[in-house]
Amino acid sequence: MQQRCPNSTPFLNGVLEDHQLECFHWMDIIEKPGGKVHGAVYVIDTDDLKKLDQYEEYPTAYERKQVSIRGIDKRLYQCVVYYMLEKLPLAPCPEYVATVNQGYLDWNLPLKQLEEAWSRSQIRVSEA
Prior knowledge:
Elements: E1 9-24, E2 26-43, H1 46-55, E3 62-71, E4 76-84, H2 94-106, H3 111-127
Antiparallel strand pairs: 1-2, 1-3, 3-4
């Protein structure tokens, strides 16, 4: 995150409710009643948001939405997330998998949801 958004500040762990983590070559979130996606929340400024928009190819490849994230302190925070527009059944490259896994370890996020997303991705790729 520091490379993409040099002014960003790590803030807290949070949960996006009624969503599920998925992998369509890149990590994504989809709406799913009762689901929960654990993730990291950063504070970013307007310049970094523009850089992140470019990196995420918004609005061509991703849609940006404002959502409520429940922090580990139980408070709700308004946050920006990106939703992938075209969900392709492609396998992620090993370097990407390693980077995402390291992020989960760094933030002490539950690896189970990540492992389940990788597993569903492998099934989609094998069925394509």
